[in-house]
Amino acid sequence: MSPQARKDTSEQAEFRSYCRDWLSQHDAGTPAVRLPQSAIEIMHREQLDYLRRWQGEAYAAGLIGCDYPVAEGGGGRKDCQRVANQEMARAGKPFLPNILGLGMAAPTLHFHAQPALKERLLPGLFSCSDIWCQGFSEPGAGSDLANVQTFAERKGDKWIINGHKVWTSLAHFADWMILLLRTDKSSKYDGLSYFVVPIKAALGKGVTVRPLIKITGETGFNEVFFDDLEISDDYRLDEVGKGWQVAQTTLLHERGAGPMVTPSSGRGSAKASAVGDAYGLIDLAKNSLRDGQCAADDPLLRDDIMQMIIRQEGSKQGARRAKVEGLCEHPMRIPLQAKLVMSEIRQDNAAVAIDILGAQSSLSINDDNAPAGGEWPLAYMNSYGITIAAGASEIQRNILGERILGMAKSK
What we know:
By secondary structure, this protein is α+β, with helices and mostly antiparallel strands. It folds into 3 domains: 3-97 and 106-129, Butyryl-Coa Dehydrogenase, subunit A, domain 1; 133-254, Butyryl-CoA Dehydrogenase, subunit A, domain 2, CATH 2.40.110.10; 280-404, Butyryl-CoA Dehydrogenase, subunit A, domain 3. It has 12 helices and 10 strands. A 4-stranded mixed β-sheet has the order 1-4-5-8. Strands 2-3-7-6 form a 4-stranded antiparallel β-sheet, with no helix packed on it. Strands 9-10 form a two-stranded antiparallel sheet. Helix 9 runs antiparallel to helix 10 (333-357). It is globular and about 75 Å long. The N and C termini lie far apart (51 Å).
């Protein structure tokens, strides 16, 4: 019995057994194309179709949206999404592609949308029939999110939207967008309002999506232009001028500290499964040469690998500590630092892998001679997007210092 299973409630234990049985009997099949390392690198329709089909099957089986009310398309369970996540990861199933919808849009809708809108949108989000993206960052509003200038002007029961969003992951496939807009130019924070927008239906009719090509050649990021897009006031979440407060719900869940657990699991491909895990560096070193000798025999590299394993295990134990009330003098610190710590650990893991590979790290995933399928160098390049997304590491440290530890604001 796993450590997690020993702490299950009766409901969780029964659900865990169900998850294991279902996952053992349902295989996602072999994809016809190479899968990306994470959802935000999905580039081709074939990749999305394979992953979307798997998410739909997992949702139909009750493994996604477990803790949401039945009326919203959820399972109506209590703290069971963690169980499903653990079992999907243990079974090595593919990751879920609608991660922005599951991790950000779903909890925001749950806490701030009118019942009719929740009941309409959440089932399709959970099943992945609708792909979601996030319209927050702008060319002049990244770290200073409250400075967004994309403007919505009210016309009766309609809103007319004009502006420009950028770094919008999955917008090239998205049906819906969660969108932070300015509705009052006289107030920075109170002048913001929050909407959900059917962007796919509006393509060419007020919405333009333009993919951004990354250094990896992938196109997970996009920029989105709004030109007199008209939407109904029914798509507004909460009151006009309360957008900043609604955005805090989104950001809290994006950073892994919200009350609704994000469904997540698995791997991209067999070759990519060990990438990002410090223990994967051991096998990489054992199968790599450095100055004509096995890289695993280099004492400096061995020390680097062990330091990464220590950091990774420390982060895991910190997550366990966060669940014990008496061990957390600052209850929100560990959840809020999780995104910061894990994004930097993954980046540093990949940097050690580059050091192990040496000149071979220059070989791409398209080169048959690339060690580990070229996944480690790709992970290193992709890691910079993760340390910037959801607030750059510097922003995360300011949040932890100022809001959690009560330190003086930085200048």
